[in-house]
Amino acid sequence: SSLIKGNGKPDKKVMSITSKGKEELTNFLKTKTPLFSRSPLLLQVFFMASLNKEERIDYFSCLIEESKKSLSSLSKASSLIKEYSSYIDLKNNDPMYWGFTLEYGILMEKTILSWASSCLERIKNESSLD
Q1: What is the CA radius of gyration of the chain?
Q2: End-to-end Cα separation, the chain, in angstroms
Q3: For residue 130, pLDDT beyond 60
Q4: Pairwise pLDDT comparison (54 vs 27), residue with the higher score
């Protein structure tokens, strides 16, 4: 890595990748990953009926709050991508792909938030057998 003094901008630390690291990264990028994987969250929800109603409500309430926090953080990332892109000399479309990952994260969090909110309402409205 090296430090480049910024003229009127913050200094930036430029990182570089070794040729071996580049080779490993390329191999990783060419590897097809499964779309679906095991989800601890879904496993917990699958067996959630064994918890009492208050615990189930608490679980989904916490999930909703965490999802809102994550969405708030992700919403700030778009401007960070633009800002960072202006500091570095890009020879490719990196920011577009960074945006793709950000978009995925935002859509996933919105989906989780909507789903968890729906689950919470149904739990609150269920007749209690506890």
Answers
A1: 21
A2: 59
A3: no
A4: 54
